[in-house]
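FAQ: What does a ligand-bound record look like?

Like this one, built around flavin-adenine dinucleotide:
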Amino acid sequence: MEVFAFMKITDILNGNDMSLSFEVFPPKKEASFESVKLATEKIAELKPSFMSVTYGAGGGTSEYTLSVAKNIKEKYDVPMLAHLTCVSSSKELIAKMIDEIKLCGIENVMALRGDLTPELENSDRSAWDYAHAVDLIYELKQKGNFCIGAACYPEVHPESANQREDIKHLKEKVDAGADFLTTQMVFDNNLFFNFLYKIREAGIFVPVIPGIMPITNANQVSRAVKLSGAFMPRRFTAMVDKFGSNPAAMKQAGIAYATDQIIDLYANGIKNVHVYSMNKPDIAAGITANLSEILGKSFLE
Ligand code: FAD
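The answer part, i.e. the structure of the complex:
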């Protein structure tokens, strides 16, 4: 697969080749930095179209997001997308983070509000300068020539009253300057296709990347549902029921399920797919190997 270093994510998304990107997360503490660095480097060696690095909830691991992104960008020439959240942040903190992103030479930023964790819900909000991701998007737009991503939710964000409201606010993010959207994890591609129809109808025309989470361990299931509220199709729950107690079999089946979802997306007109690879190089490698005759090929062929 061809890599383009100093490249805006939208150049990749709008190019001819099918793209596959991987998401990693930073360490929570200094002690695990080396192991995370090693895992993310192994994923970078697979030459994904780009890699994204998450930002800790409430800014908890903020300093490591950029160290991980900078390391991969410099050593592996893989285009990087740094996540940034604004919940509970002051204008000063966000201005400092934007300066640091620029200093690292990163031009792609995923602009997020961040989750309102129970601790944040109960904390003093007087120093919070941002209500929603849209406020951060305006700020990024003013402060640099960034390619900006935003999050979207095929199964509706849990705080939204309904999908119409959620899509209305999504359009505000795109109107404010979001250049592309990445979805919350989906396990049923039809939910993604239905969502895509609805947002196109609502006048949102930027590229939308479906997010695929390979579930390779039965313990991940309840966490994934809690985090995303995602619907688990019968085909998926049958797989976990059958193989969940055999770790090696579950891993193989989970990689195959994610691969199957990705192939179905490519086969049905979706050119770009993002994988929540969760710092697991063997899983990223398994999916990449399964797609070896597909990736790097023109989507138009
Ligand atoms: P927003 O766009 O602000 O939306 C949050 C809610 O508010 C939605 O219900 C929306 O409909 C509503 N809303 C938006 N604007 C308005 C408005 N003007 N008035 C009223 N309501 C409004 N979390 C992290 O902590 N770190 C990460 O790195 C991270 N990466 C993510 C990547 C992806 C692809 C996704 C899908 C999620 C990610 N998250 C991450 C989780 C995300 O922070 C949470 O889902 C969070 O609850 C919402 O973030 P948002 O940017 O979508 O917020």
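Follow-up question: can I read anything off the structure? Yes, for example: The domain at 9-290 is CATH 3.20.20.220 (TIM Barrel).
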